[in-house]
Amino acid sequence: MITKNLALHCPPPKLEFQQVCFEPMAPISELDLPHHGFLQLYRKDPAAIRAELEEGLQAPVAAVSPKYLYDALGSKLFEAICELPEYYPTRTETAIIEAHLPDIARSTGRGATFIDLGAGNCAKAERLFPVLQPRQYVPIDISVEFLREAVERLRQRYPMIRMTGVGMDFSNSLDLPEGIRRDKRLFFYPGSSIGNFTTDDAAALLGRIRDACGPDGGLLIGVDLVKNKEVLDAAYDDAVGVTAAFNLNMLRHLNTLVDADFDVRDWRHLGFFNEALGRIEMHLEARRDVRVRWDGGQRLFRQGERIHTESSYKYTRHGFLQLLERAGFGSVRTWTDEREWFMVCHASVM
Ligand code: AVI
Fold first, then answer.
1. Ligand 1 center from residue 25 Cα (angstroms)
2. If DSSP codes are grouped into helix, strand and coil, which group holds residue 185?
3. pTM for the complete prediction?
4. N vs C: which end of the chain shows fewer Cβ within 10 Å?
5. Cβ 140 vs Cβ 12: under 8 Å
6. Residues near 337 by beta carbon (within 8 Å), at least 6 away in sequence
7. Are 39 and 147 spatial neighbours (Cβ–Cβ below 8 Å)?
8. Hey, whose CA ends up nearest to atom 11 of ligand 1?
9. What's the DSSP call for residue 67?
10. 256-266 pLDDT per residue, tens
């Protein structure tokens, strides 16, 4: 049963899909791990990427997973999006956490095994260290290479916290290596990245997090809430065109991934709130008839035909609490801003 305890009232930069460093796949105990370890459990599979992209590009309504928005330039453009006046989620989430940090810490407890999903540059988690005082910090992202620099920096500042960077794709499995402490696990999933999953996939991911929590664990998560369409439309179609560049850049990324010949100038960015489905949709729309060829396939896109590149689901408070309950969480505390545009939740297993 969820206890609705409303207190008063910012993919993480995501990563380039990239290379592997080392991958000790055998179980590793905590004692075997150096104080600051890195485990790469994810290996890029070019054939699987090609098959996935081929299927999406040939579908009646073409679609490409939003993870392909994040090559090196895409990650930088996402960081720029977070600075835009129209893109409120990052700064609203930060403000909520800052305003309620002592209360959040009372709810989560201190000394946790702090597991940061999609950690990026680890900056959001770091802000919580002084108050949450984690015993072990486990940033997870697709590549430990990206984490390495951030963890080195954090290590200097917080030598008392054991840090273990893990390179894995947690959207499919959350089987954490043996060396990650099992007690008092606190998962951290900020930025409303959960919105980039369909509701069913979000419920499945939350269920996996709940299973990985253990009986004394929990989840601290940021969720973007349904609001006025004008505000949402502007956040995903900003005046300067940074979001348009972020979306269009996916085509350049596809050119390198599957040797395609997309010409960015043939496509236009669309980003809008679909009220009926409760989600932002981003599409790339052909400005004219365009034939696109790639390694192993081709397609004629008629003028006005679209490639669906991202959905970003917006939740009501009630809807998200139901999702947490469906995933098996037992109690939840929530914090929001005055306008109730964004919500931070601490969900515990018990
Ligand atoms: C990473 N994710 C939570 C962002 C969002 O708001 O869905 C990605 C994004 N797409 C366009 N702008 C930002």
1. 32
2. strand
3. 0.89
4. N
5. no
6. 9, 92, 95, 96
7. no
8. 236
9. G
10. 999 999 999 99
- Which of 14, 81, 198 to probe ligand 1 with, by most ligand atoms within 8 A of CB? 81
Q: Which atom of ligand 1 is nearest to the CA of 246?
A: 11
**Which residues does 133 contact at the CB level (< 8 Å), separation at least 6?**
110, 111
Q: How far is the CA of 7 from the centre of ligand 1 (A)?
A: 26
Ligand 1 centre from 318 Cα, in Å? 22
| Beta-bridge partner residues of 189 | 221
Which residues have CB under 6 Å of ligand 1?
11, 81, 89, 191-193, 195-196, 236, 243, 310, 312
Measured by CA distance, the residue closest to atom 9 of ligand 1 is: 78
Cα-to-centroid distance, 90 and ligand 1 (Å): 10
| Partner residues linked to 223 by β-bridges | 343
pLDDT tens-digit series, residues 271-315: 999 999 999 999 999 999 999 999 999 999 999 999 999 999 999
Which residue's CA lies nearest to atom 10 of ligand 1?
236
Tell how strand 297-301 and strand 290-294 pair up. Answer: antiparallel
In the chain, where the domains are located: 34-43+77-228+315-348
Residue owning the nearest CA to atom 12 of ligand 1: 236
Within 10 angstroms of residue 62's Cβ, the number of other Cβ atoms is 20
| Averaged pLDDT of the chain | 89
Locate 239 and state its tokens: 């005046």
| Distance (Å) of CA 221 to CA 54, 70, 251, 268 | 33, 22, 31, 33
Q: Per CATH, which fold does 34-43+77-228+315-348 belong to?
A: Rossmann fold (3.40.50)
Ligand 1 centre to CA of 243 (Å) is 9
Secondary structure (3-state) at 39: strand
Q: Are 225 and 316 in contact (CB under 8 A)?
A: yes
Other beta carbons within 10 angstroms of residue 140's beta carbon come to: 26
Q: Is 168 exposed, middle or buried (0-12, 13-18, 19+ CB in 10 A)?
A: buried
For residue 282, the CA-to-ligand 1 centroid distance in Å is: 10
